[in-house]
Specification:
The protein is of the alpha/beta class and 268 residues long. The protein has helices at 39-44, 69-83, 95-106, 126-139, 144-156, 159-162, 165-179, 183-192, 222-231, 247-250, 252-263, and strands at residues 3-6, 9-16, 20-25, 47-52, 88-93, 111-117, 209-214, 235-240. The chain has an eight-stranded mixed sheet, with helices on both faces. Helix 4 packs antiparallel against helix 8.
């Protein structure tokens, strides 16, 4: 089955490959399809890849109230229980990185390796609240998810990537995802994720952790990932040159190589 039920909602997910489980968590207003560049490489490396759509995203059911990081983590816990998975690796980007951090704090011995890309440890700030409210207001407009994609595409990925055939193909696919997305649900997520703050708990992360930043990321600047890495006991930091906020897409070869190297715990 490609769906699992949580409190009457149907959530969508897909699986690929066999071997050690690894969970890939996407960012706000996207879907699991954002991990397309990484899935084949992880399967070839011997992983069982699990790719959910967050509630209110992709093919998962719409939302009727604010839905935050803890709520998405709760849904994810239900998926893992359904699949009978107790130990795994977790990779999250942007919103997905926040969920990954939440899961890691909940499962100190259940997550072997953690990767947090282009993300945040604290959204309980006036700056983030204002940014998130701006997203929510756009999402609530007619065709809001498409409007937001068109507005944010220039800062989401690098100019170099935008002008490549793969960049154009990615834009077309994501534009189609946005065109079928439920804007009010995404507004509920945008408002729900405000107030997340684990900045004082990073020292509790018990597993090897890789923080990935994009050199050109203006939404989650490299200094933010650097600060998180400095507070995390077994952390490494890599800054991908020429990458923007969605670094797994605009710098997929570099991102995937660094991801696989870390997951196999090989030296740099």
């Amino acid at each position: 089955m490609a769906c699992y039920e949580v409190k009457g909602r149907n959530n969508y997910y897909m699986e690929f490959g066999q071997g050690r489980p690894i969970l890939l968590l996407h960012g706000i207003s996207n879907s699991g399809r954002a991990w397309g560049p990484q899935i084949p490489e992880l399967v070839a490396a011997g992983y069982r890849v699990i790719v959910p759509d967050h509630a209110g995203h992709g093919a998962s059911d719409p939302l009727t109230a604010p839905f935050g990081v803890s709520d998405i983590a709760d849904d994810t816990e239900q998926l893992l229980a359904r699949l009978g998975i107790e130990t795994l690796d977790v990779v999250g980007l942007s919103l997905g990185g926040m969920v990954a951090l939440e899961l890691a704090l909940r499962r100190p011995t259940g997550i072997g390796r953690l990767v947090v890309a282009n993300s945040f440890d604290n959204t309980a700030t006036p700056e983030f609240r204002a940014m998130s409210e701006g997203w929510a207001s756009v999402f609530e407009q007619p065709h809001g998810p498409v409007t937001r994609l068109e507005q944010n595409w220039l800062v989401s990925v690098s100019e170099t990537f935008r002008n490549t055939p793969e960049g154009m193909r990615t834009y077309q696919v994501w534009h189609g995802i946005a065109a079928t997305s439920h804007g009010p649900s995404l507004a509920h997520v945008a408002r729900g994720i405000v107030g997340f703050d684990i900045s004082g708990r990073l020292a509790e992360l018990a597993m090897p952790t890789l923080f990935i930043a994009g050199e050109l990321d203006r939404m989650s600047p490299p200094d933010l990932s650097r600060r998180m890495a400095e507070k995390t006991p077994q952390a490494k930091l890599c800054v991908i040159e020429g990458a923007a906020h969605i670094s797994n897409a605009d710098s997929s070869e570099d991102f995937t190589a660094r991801l696989l190297r870390f997951l196999s715990l090989q030296p740099e």
